[in-house]
Amino acid sequence: MKDIFGNLLGLKTSQIKRLENLSRRRVAPQAIVSHELCRDLCALSAETGRQIGLLIDRSGKVTKVLTGEVDRILIPDLRGYRLAPDRLRGLRCVHTHLSDAPLSQDDLTDLSLLRLDLMAVVTMTAEGLPSAIHWAHILPGASESTPYRIMDPIPPFRPEVGCHDLILALEAELARKKSDATGPAGAEQALLVSVFTGPRKEALDSLDELSELARTADIRIIDTILQQRKKANPRFLMGSGKLDELSIMALHRGATLIVFDQELNPSQIRSIADRTEIKVIDRTQLILDIFARRAQTREGKLQVELAQLKYILPRLVTKDIAMSRLTGGIGGRGPGETRLEINRRRARERIRRLEKAVATVQKNRSQQRSRRSKKGLPIISIIGYTNAGKSTLLNQLTQSRVLAENKLFATLDPSSRRLRFPRDIEVIITDTVGFIRDLPKELMAAFKATLEELENADLLLHVIDISNPRHPDQVRSVETILSELNLSGIPTIRVLNKMDRIDRLDHDGMIRRLDGIAVSALNRSTLKPLTEKMEAAVEHLYGSQR
């Protein structure tokens, strides 16, 4: 009875046998269902007092017989059947109603969510004979609220509607719309989602930052969705109804990825991925993916892979289809691309090996710092929020060519250069990895070797992008991280970067409020007050040490 799905309790043996026989029937590809099959379905429904249904593939073969209740019928898990943004499921559902009621809202929701070829309902007369076939199909280009077309009912004795040709035409239209919407070859297309319980402004700012992260990862953003709740749903984070709407929107608009702004626990990722049948990642995994792209040195790659494995390990509890959606592409690339296919034991072994390698990196960096200390050169470290202009400032101060891009985390590996002040004072100036709000704890732990560079700094340059409307929150985030790293006691100069992008009337107010020096890292002529203050700070530090 593997071809029968549903509750068989209370059915006679002869009725179960007739249900089994239905699974051996075939339908002409151009017909929704045959007239004879309509009569048999209605006769069984009238006799059992239940809705009876069929799942039929495009060749006309009945793949599953469904038994429901008097007012509803459930469709089994269809994850074994193909699904893509430009494809339908390859199955149509035909089931009975024990009255003359047409397609219900549940029928239309199943059609949209499951991406079925067609949904059809056979209504019955009081005598248990087929009355009419009500049917609908997905409509490419329609609104997300009604992503389907309800067709006129047809008589059960003439069920031929050019079914196969219609389905192929629908898929051709879906493929055309996907082609129109697709960005660079191979680019993921994502919906960004934020479910928040606090102030709306904070959620909007955080979603803006998530959009910047997505663009850095070369993700094409289809749309952003916000839902405010008094309390997050422990299973889906958002409400189940809103998640169904999200699923329909994702399928209707060709999304291949859903990115949540909030960190999802392993069970939430599995539950949401099962419900939507689309790859789901969270903000942490997106940041880890960006780090995996940006890591260039062996040290950086080791630290990123360690962070990724520690993040993924709890999500390897079960290896099911939900977790397979995490493999490959955004959130699944990097130095250890095969890690999601190994079991937990091998993952732990790899983590231990990486931790030993990172410990070696820490030891080497410690020796490097020791050699610098013996030379007696002061160390100045540039810190700040990601994309604040740290690498650009380093290039201008030292006439270097460190990579600098208008992207989040453009540079990941720390860079050190020598800088000589006019009074013949020489220092080492170091650019560090950028900070971000709620920096993933996996990254904080893995990049301990990199962040330890800051412990030996004599002076910190805190670069602030004052043209960013979120700069007050960014300043707080950086200072919070410094406090967590026990670095708050190091003397710090605030560098108010990108002064050329704000109104000159606001300069004085910002300088007073932030107690910093306004510069434009792109314009070397604006850096003189900064270099003078740096030189004075270094002289003061070394004078007090003597």
Automatic annotation (TrEMBL):
<dbReference type="InterPro" id="IPR025121">
    <property type="entry name" value="GTPase_HflX_N"/>
</dbReference>
<dbReference type="GO" id="GO:0005737">
    <property type="term" value="C:cytoplasm"/>
</dbReference>
<comment type="similarity">
    <text>Belongs to the TRAFAC class OBG-HflX-like GTPase superfamily. HflX GTPase family.</text>
</comment>
<dbReference type="GO" id="GO:0005525">
    <property type="term" value="F:GTP binding"/>
</dbReference>
<dbReference type="InterPro" id="IPR032305">
    <property type="entry name" value="GTP-bd_M"/>
</dbReference>
<dbReference type="InterPro" id="IPR006073">
    <property type="entry name" value="GTP-bd"/>
</dbReference>
<dbReference type="InterPro" id="IPR027417">
    <property type="entry name" value="P-loop_NTPase"/>
</dbReference>
<comment type="subunit">
    <text>Monomer. Associates with the 50S ribosomal subunit.</text>
</comment>
<dbReference type="Pfam" id="PF16360">
    <property type="entry name" value="GTP-bdg_M"/>
</dbReference>
<keyword id="KW-0175">Coiled coil</keyword>
<dbReference type="Pfam" id="PF01926">
    <property type="entry name" value="MMR_HSR1"/>
</dbReference>
<dbReference type="InterPro" id="IPR042108">
    <property type="entry name" value="GTPase_HflX_N_sf"/>
</dbReference>
<keyword id="KW-0547">Nucleotide-binding</keyword>
<keyword id="KW-0479">Metal-binding</keyword>
<feature type="coiled-coil region">
    <location>
        <begin position="337"/>
        <end position="371"/>
    </location>
</feature>
<dbReference type="Pfam" id="PF13167">
    <property type="entry name" value="GTP-bdg_N"/>
</dbReference>
<protein>
    <recommendedName>
        <fullName>GTPase HflX</fullName>
    </recommendedName>
</protein>
<keyword id="KW-0460">Magnesium</keyword>
<feature type="domain" description="Hflx-type G">
    <location>
        <begin position="378"/>
        <end position="542"/>
    </location>
</feature>
<dbReference type="InterPro" id="IPR030394">
    <property type="entry name" value="G_HFLX_dom"/>
</dbReference>
<keyword id="KW-0963">Cytoplasm</keyword>
<dbReference type="GO" id="GO:0003924">
    <property type="term" value="F:GTPase activity"/>
</dbReference>
<dbReference type="GO" id="GO:0046872">
    <property type="term" value="F:metal ion binding"/>
</dbReference>
<keyword id="KW-0342">GTP-binding</keyword>
<comment type="function">
    <text>GTPase that associates with the 50S ribosomal subunit and may have a role during protein synthesis or ribosome biogenesis.</text>
</comment>
<dbReference type="GO" id="GO:0043022">
    <property type="term" value="F:ribosome binding"/>
</dbReference>
<dbReference type="InterPro" id="IPR016496">
    <property type="entry name" value="GTPase_HflX"/>
</dbReference>
